[in-house]
Design goal:
It contains 14 helices and eleven strands. The chain has 330 residues and is α/β, with parallel strands linked by helices.
Length: 330
């Protein structure tokens, strides 16, 4: 692709991505001091992926996706995952209609644009797999009928890192279906002061729809046109391969710390997230900083650490940091 074409793409994306500022401003009315989480929600939304959010209770995880759905005028569903939940409680079931003497379909809460799967690790594996099938296949089968999911379709699953009693940890293969795993932290002191004051006064801003679902679908198509140079592609592949074969990249000391590296979904999602990040930053081309900015969220749940790593208190985050410091930036 020549420089004239790249310039044209850049100009078009500068104009078409203006709604990002509107959407962020609208969400910031309600969500105080969680800039990273809002940005990651937009990454998942425009990258047509799903997000696993990890954070202690009370960090506005539920409020964030509810606010996003209001700002886009989409359908919002919240599913509270509990140990006694059944797959039919999520996807729906067939109900016998006595007057008509036939079975009819009763759709579950999975049918919506924005789905909050609250505390996903509280429900047993069969319920988790019902949700993950809908996420991956973008369709649900009830009885002998198959229904396509609405577009856009974003699942935000949350899990609580502090309480592990009565939880069913998500298997690695299922966690891999999430485009991003975002870890959110406590707000800064000044932000928390604002949150506290707003809560005590009861004065909450009203979120208005500022973007349509059609604009989001159009933006997703536009994200695909963001230019990615072959050097950036090679950089992404080097990072992914360093998680699998660290010795090839002069990271021999990591061999005993990694039990398994990233799957090919990692490279696909890293490239997609980097393109979306460039789009959010109003740019029509990807730079190495875009890859580095999204790398932790895309890879932290795709790298398995060994018992030796756990004994030395080394997390997948530390491994990603070492890889990013070692792999040559184009």
């Amino acid at each position: 692709m020549d420089s004239v074409e790249i310039k044209e793409i850049n100009e078009k994306i500068k104009q078409e991505s203006a709604f990002i500022d509107l959407l962020t401003l609208e969400m910031n009315k309600v969500i105080i001091g969680q800039k990273h989480m809002i940005e990651r929600l937009l990454l998942g939304l425009l990258g047509n992926g799903h997000i696993l959010l990890e954070g202690v209770p009370g960090l506005a995880k539920t409020l964030a996706i509810n606010t996003l759905s209001k700002a886009i005028n989409g359908n919002f569903s919240r599913i509270q995952f509990t140990p006694d939940l059944l797959p039919s409680d999520v996807i729906g079931t067939t109900v016998y209609n006595m007057p008509k003497n036939e079975f009819s379909i009763k759709r579950g809460p999975i049918f919506g644009n924005f789905i909050l799967a609250d505390e996903i690790n509280r429900a047993p594996a069969k319920v988790q797999s019902a949700l993950l099938e809908a996420m991956q296949e973008r369709q649900v089968t009830i009885g002998d009928e198959t229904f396509a999911m609405e577009d856009p379709f974003l699942v935000l699953a949350t899990q609580n890192p502090v309480e592990q009693e009565g939880t069913y940890p998500l298997p690695e293969a299922q966690v891999d279906r999430f485009m991003l795993k975002t870890v959110i932290d406590y707000p800064k002191q000044e932000d928390e002061r604002t949150i506290m004051r707003n809560s005590l006064s009861g004065q909450y801003e009203i979120v208005k729809p500022v973007v349509t679902l059609e604009e989001i679908c159009k933006a997703r198509e536009l994200v695909k046109t963001v230019y990615m140079d072959e050097k950036i592609e090679n950089y992404i592949l080097d990072i992914i391969f360093a998680t699998r074969y660290p010795d090839r990249f002069g990271l021999d000391h990591l061999t005993g710390l990694i039990s398994f590296g990233s799957s090919p979904r990692g490279s696909i999602n890293l490239a997609t997230a980097a393109k979306v990040y460039a789009f959010i930053k109003r740019r029509g081309y990807v730079i190495p900083e875009d890859v580095r900015a999204v790398c932790h969220d895309v890879l932290r749940h795709r790298i398995g650490v060994t018992y030796e790593a756990e004994a030395e208190n080394i997390s997948s985050e530390d491994i990603i940091n070492q890889i990013l410091n070692k792999v040559e930036v184009p």
